[in-house]
Amino acid sequence: MNSYQEKLSILSELIAFARVDYKMKDDEYDFLLSVANLMEVKKSSLDDLLKNKTEISIPRTQTDRIVQFHRLLLMMNIDNEQHKKEIEKLHNIGLWMGLPPSAISQVLEVMHQYPNKAVPPKVLLDIFRAHYN
Question: How many CB atoms sit inside 10 A of residue 66's CB?
């Protein structure tokens, strides 16, 4: 698993993304808390991140980048709304992480085929795998 600082970076990026529309909804906070729990980051640390930013860094491995992209996709769709600004931000984050633009676009298109626009992990991995071959 990632170092503690990397975990904080992952959470910080999710927080920043949740705030793209200038508000943090309860469902978004609950999602952040569940991710923090999975990464064994205390609620108090998450709450500190909400008040104080930490440096955001690109995940080290390609797999970690795809997983983070998936988390961001889930965060965007948690409120069943996709604002143009959120879609653009997610696309740009994917590019910043070095993910293939065509794979990012394909994921953003196929998400509409799934309940709550939650692309299953296997489908997401298959899309990225196809673009790396």
Answer: 22
Note the pTM of the prediction, 2 decimals.
Answer: 0.87
Is the Cβ–Cβ distance between 45 and 36 less than 8 Å? yes
- pLDDT tens column, 30-71: 999 999 999 999 999 999 999 987 888 899 899 999 999 999
Maximum alpha-carbon separation in the chain: 42
Q: What is the DSSP string of 61-107?
A: SHHHHHHHHHHHHHHHHTTS---HHHHHHHHHHHHHTT--HHHHHHH
Cα 99 to Cα 62: distance, rounded to the nearest angstrom: 8
Cα Rg of the chain (Å, integer): 14
Write out pLDDT tens, residues 77-113.
887 777 788 899 999 999 999 999 999 999 999 999 9
Q: Given its phi and psi angles, is residue 114 left (phi above 0), alpha (psi -120 to 50 degrees) or beta? A: beta
Residues 56/12, Cβ–Cβ less than 8 Å: yes
